[in-house]
Amino acid sequence: YEAVHSGTGNSQWSGKVKVNSVKSGKNFVLKDTARGGNQVFNARHKVIGQGTFPAFSNPTDTWGNGKGSMPQTAAVDAQYGAAATWDYFKSVHGRKGIRNDGKGAPSYVHYDDNMDNAFWDNDNFFMAYGDGPGNKRPFTSLDVAAHEMSHGVTGATAGLYYYGESGGLDEATSDIFAAMVEFHAKNPKDPADYLFMEKLGAKPERYMDKPSKDGHSADYWFKGLDDLDPHLSSGVGNHFYYLLAEGSGAKTINGVKYNSPTKNGKKVTGIGRGAAEKIWYKAVTAYMTSTTNYKGARSATLKAARDLYGTKSVQYKTVQAAWDGVNVK
Ligand code: ASN
Ligand code: ZN
């Protein structure tokens, strides 16, 4: 047993945050024994197999300086993101870690050279975060951490194949939970939204209310959707989820303006995030399988809504209306 120490982190994207550590000799080590032992390691611009990755250790329990120039800072963001995601799945869904076994996962920061991405390695069970172009912009925002860890949850449950429509559902699941983690975390430096990667660039990478705003993603199901990259066919799932939770039309949340259309022109009234996230989680963890497509996702979410609220409920009927709205029959 290692006692939990509550340290202070100066993150790059989420302001001043709490990070847990353990004591090792005279130093503190960035390891969160309150959350399954989530721990951050320094890949020092290498990839797994290229030597060992040291833990982050420090003579004081204050970490990072809020800037990408200090290697510890990315570790703070990664540790905070893993903690916020852990807390979301535990308190909202009763899930204890990615595999629901109470065990944390390692995060590798400064991964690879100039890697303009982050990823979840489902075979080796770790998250990796690159430092971006010129190793100058760590890919470590809260939504990215939550997106990657949610790939772990999907991998441990539905196991959606990462191609075709099942791949789109895998990506949508990660974007959906990334958004819900932001709403749960209530971090004043990163107000919650239905955008993905809004902190990292001039524009968000994805928009859930109207996915085609990014210039590439699909708003509605069409024949041939399965030929798109999963990050684009995810648009249909993201759009469904936005309609289910928030409804169609114009809406402002935390200062961000949304305007969500439906294919059939019919109005959808949202059931709220609290019901929507429970339906999606139950659908992914209890009903979706590796080959589930959008039609299958419709039936999986309807079964989840039936279990949770009954077939006569407004929640059940709104699941139908939201799928109709994105042309999934
Ligand atoms: N960050 C990306 C993702 O999680 C990495 C990838 O494309 N596999 O989807
Ligand atoms: Zn992804």
UniProtKB/TrEMBL annotation:
The keyword DNA-binding does not apply. It is an enzyme of class 3 (hydrolase). The keyword Protease applies. Residues 158-328 form the Peptidase M4 C-terminal domain. It comes from the Bacteria. Its cofactor is Zn(2+). Its main location: secreted. Keywords: Hydrolase, Metal-binding, Metalloprotease, Protease, Secreted, Signal, Zinc. Its EC number is 3.4.24.-. Residues 7-154 form the Peptidase M4 domain. It is found in: Secreted. Belongs to the peptidase M4 family. Extracellular zinc metalloprotease. This is Neutral metalloproteinase. It comes from Streptomyces luteireticuli.
